[in-house]
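Lecture 7 notes: from sequence to structure.
We start with the chain below.
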Amino acid sequence: MTAMSQAILKAIGAGALALYGGLVAAATPPAGMPVGDALLIHGHIYTADPANPWVAALAVHAGRIVVAGTEAQARRARPPRAQVIDLHGRTVIPGLVDAHLHLLFGAMEIAGVNLSTPQRSLTPQRPDELVDALADYATAHPDQRLLIGRIDFASVEPAAPHHRLLDRAVSDRPIVIHNSTEHVLWVNARALALAGIGDEPVTDPTEERGIIRDASGHPTGVLLEAAQELMERAVLAALSTEEKLALVQGAMRYLNTFGITSVVNATGDLAEIELYGTLRDRGALTVRTRTAFGAVAVPHRLTPQFLADLETARSRFHDEWVSANLVKFFADGSTGLAPPLVYRASEYKQLVAELDRRGFQIMTHAQRGDSVHLILDAYEAAIRQNGPRDRRQRIEHDFVISDADLARYPAMQVIAGIQPAFCCSEVGTNYDPADPTPADRWHDLLAAGAVLAFSTDWPCMWPPDPFVNIQQAVTRQIWKSEDTAVIETAPFDGAHQGGARPLPGRYFHPEQRIGVRASVDAYTRFAAYAEFAEDRVGMLSPGKLADLAVLSQDIFAVTPETIEATHTLLTMVGGRVVYGDEHSL
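Predicted structure tokens for the same chain:
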């Protein structure tokens, strides 16, 4: 059993997750998850509240903080049946709000085979080893009727792999391999058949455009950008509702092991939100969710059904556990030598203006500098057209921002959704070698007055470790992976990604570093603000929900290069412990 598998079993309990084979065990939901009473004493507690940043104790009643202050103050407010937790001086931070991840993708991939880990990336450039690894996994999991994997591979011809290699490994069942970017799938012949992808073009031209075909028109097994939807629909249709619920519950318990207590789920639809609603009704949620409507690089169409689903979601799901009212756009993708554009400028602006008029929050993926400019233009036009309100418009990734556009973020109150672990390769994340603009301008954004919301973009980042992200924000260490160096359009050499190693003494634009406290704030109170949840989470202050993480070391005091060694000892959601216990402190 791998270390990752052990971590999952520790998080969700042995037998709680056996998927795809109709063998999902009946995991007992944690009854009464929403609220709890607790007294936490002898702590080094960072509240993220600017008015009262450090306290020694917390008193929690009915899932909310009633006192954040001295031990004496907390003891006076102690509820009669409160669980007493002696922190023994441990550092505590608010529960981490991962402001951008993909929960269902991650749920499927932790239960599959992952060949792109911090230790190593096994790629198609070592075909025999890859075939053996996948075949061994398939043999060890005979009851999984559908196999899921995660691998680094090229997304451009002629370097992209072919389904024949996967067929050598697994020929009796579909196998679906996610690229670590989540913008490309590589599948075998059985999977192509499951998705109905053959020699004839598929109906939707946007999806057809992403199907790589050989000179004779046969699909090669590589599906780019919007074409992934063909496979995703087939996979989800093959899973029962109970299988999906078990996957999601296991993923949430896994996230809890990193101190994550809330997430913005950056792709989804009404059916997925209903899964979280079902778990909420069963008292089985351990992570608070806000889900965006959107699919990877799929252009939105404002059909009557889509608009009806948006309205249904925001009318039914708007509580502290499950919420919606968010739409995710992709201005560009993440394949090829440069990210492909998804919209014409006029089309994107019209869509943004109409959804903004209807009161939806908008977030947009952008990896190119011209995409950032397009998005800001569209957001600005929507503001002019629809009038002032509290929008909290977001741009995700923000790799390349020109000087002129930098000032527009605070002026328009646009939030920058940042994943620090994607930084830093030797050349950064600017795809245009002729563009001298430095990438990942976090310090400049903060200095300009912009709001940063941190996230992992899991499963693009693996594992979803907030402390790796925080260390990268503070150091901007350069990382390099020899395993993926031979891949055209290889994934970024991010921190601890795909076998990457740090290059000692080398840093990418160190003037763009930010501090530990600013990084924690971006993961807590500002990430909560980005999802309209600052009245509930993101700070440990009276009236807020008691979501928190107890850490193995003081990240505010240790050497910056050792922050990544931090792990979570205990995670609390709504005053109840969902990971670890007081014996681990």
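Points to note: The longest strand covers residues 322-330. Residues 1-34 have pLDDT under 50 and may be disordered.
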